[in-house]
């Protein structure tokens, strides 16, 4: 049995999640004595494709055509399911990213497979019965999913599994089959990137600020801190509701869920709805002038003080570092 992994790219460069899912598949392959096949869709140069062998992909299949240069849910799902059938793959793994959230259920339906979406653990394997953990109820609980169907689709939460090097020598193949016209119904002609900044859902470091910042005119220091750290910026809901920041930065129960290595919360109280979107971050640093702010209860490091004094000092110290 081979494990099939769908690896995402942006403008021909693999995302970090691509290396995460290959590493994750390799760990499962070691448990089950299997091989890992990676599937890339869209134009990715051979040199970039071969990077996947560093993380354990023994076979790399590239589906490259002009029609596929932008993400098309139905066409991509068709290719993943088709390659899974061709390769006899019984486990299909992808990232629980923006596109992965749309692809995983479609692929599972096409293959009559069991689906674990948003997995955060390796499976516990007992024959055909695989048990996986995911977070539930806005990250306040964990759910155990038991996948019993012979074919399994697993979408892995970004940042839930460390990238691990496991060099092998890979064989490169191309996907040649026709894609049904119905699956190419909507073609994205052009994607115009609104910003060159680090993408929030995939960021390893997030600098986030809340109503404690008083107004949009004070976000300069938040952006500067993010720039120094190579981080994405985020905000609490009231901040985006008040149009201080764009809605694309709103994290929490009703916004984006992030799980970076480092989440820095500045002037955010730590309401339960905010924590729902950030509590799976590896390390949380809180800066708040109120020592009783609920955010301190979940913080790994806390600074009690005025953000307008602390953040500029932090920027100066980091620049000098
Ligand atoms: P506040 O609660 O006003 O907190 C501001 C904090 O800044 C305070 O702790 C204060 O001590 C601190 N502060 C003030 N001045 C300074 C200073 N100079 N230096 C340092 N600290 C300072 N919220 C979300 O964020 N995301 C969601 O997805 C979300 N979904 C929701 C869904 C529902 C159904 C509901 C009812 C609410 C939701 N909320 C959400 C809102 C949530 O309940 C809180 O109201 C919100 O998170 C508070 O935002 P805040 O922490 O920025 O503001």
UniProtKB/TrEMBL annotation:
Q: Which UniProt keywords apply?
A: Electron transport, FAD, Flavoprotein, Transport
Q: Where does FAD bind?
A: 211, 267-274, 288
* Keyword Electron transport among record annotations: yes
Q: Which one of the record's GO molecular function terms can you name?
A: flavin adenine dinucleotide binding
Domain Electron transfer flavoprotein alpha/beta-subunit N-terminal, by residue range, is 3-188
The record describes how the cofactor is bound as: Binds 1 FAD per dimer.
Under InterPro entries, the record lists:
DHS-like_NAD/FAD-binding_dom, ETF_a/b_N, ETF_a/FixB, ETF_asu_C, Rossmann-like_a/b/a_fold
Which is a Pfam family this sequence falls into? ETF_alpha
Q: Which cofactor does it need?
A: FAD
Q: What GO biological process terms are annotated to this protein in UniProt?
A: fatty acid beta-oxidation using acyl-CoA dehydrogenase
Read off the PANTHER family from this record.
ELECTRON TRANSFER FLAVOPROTEIN ALPHA, ELECTRON TRANSFER FLAVOPROTEIN SUBUNIT ALPHA, MITOCHONDRIAL
Q: Which family does it belong to?
A: Belongs to the ETF alpha-subunit/FixB family.
> What is the name attached to this protein's record?
Electron transfer flavoprotein subunit alpha/FixB family protein
- Gene source species: Rhinopithecimicrobium faecis
Q: What is the lineage of its organism?
A: Bacteria, Pseudomonadati, Bacteroidota, Sphingobacteriia, Sphingobacteriales
């Amino acid at each position: 049995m081979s494990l099939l992994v769908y690896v995402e790219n942006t403008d021909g460069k693999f995302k970090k999640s691509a290396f995460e899912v290959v590493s994750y598949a390799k760990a499962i392959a070691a448990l089950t004595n299997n091989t890992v096949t990676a599937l890339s869709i869209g134009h990715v140069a051979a040199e970039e494709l071969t990077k996947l062998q560093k993380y354990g992909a023994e076979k790399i299949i590239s589906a490259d055509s002009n029609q596929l240069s932008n993400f098309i849910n139905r066409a991509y799902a068709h290719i993943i399911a088709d390659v899974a059938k061709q390769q006899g793959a019984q486990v299909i793994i992808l990232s629980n990213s923006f596109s992965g959230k749309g692809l995983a259920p479609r692929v599972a339906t096409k293959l009559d497979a069991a689906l674990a979406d948003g997995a955060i653990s390796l499976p516990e394997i007992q024959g055909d019965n695989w048990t996986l953990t995911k977070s539930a109820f806005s990250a306040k609980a964990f759910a155990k999913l038991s996948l019993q169907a012979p074919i399994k689709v697993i979408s892995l939460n970004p940042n839930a599994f460390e990238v691990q090097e496991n060099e092998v020598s890979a064989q490169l193949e191309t996907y040649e089959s026709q894609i049904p016209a119905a699956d190419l119904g909507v073609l994205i002609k052009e994607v115009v990137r609104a910003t060159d900044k680090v993408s929030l859902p995939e960021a390893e470091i997030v600098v986030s600020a809340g109503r404690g910042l008083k107004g949009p005119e004070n976000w300069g220091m938040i952006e500067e801190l993010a720039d120094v750290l190579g981080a994405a910026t985020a905000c609490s809901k009231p901040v985006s509701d008040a149009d201080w920041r764009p809605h694309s930065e709103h994290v929490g129960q009703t916004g984006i869920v992030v799980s970076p290595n480092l989440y820095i919360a500045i002037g955010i109280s730590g309401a339960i709805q905010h924590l729902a979107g950030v509590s799976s971050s590896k390390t949380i640093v809180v800066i708040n002038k109120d020592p009783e702010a609920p955010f301190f209860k979940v913080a790994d490091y806390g600074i009690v003080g005025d953000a307008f004094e602390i953040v500029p000092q932090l920027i100066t110290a980091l620049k000098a570092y």
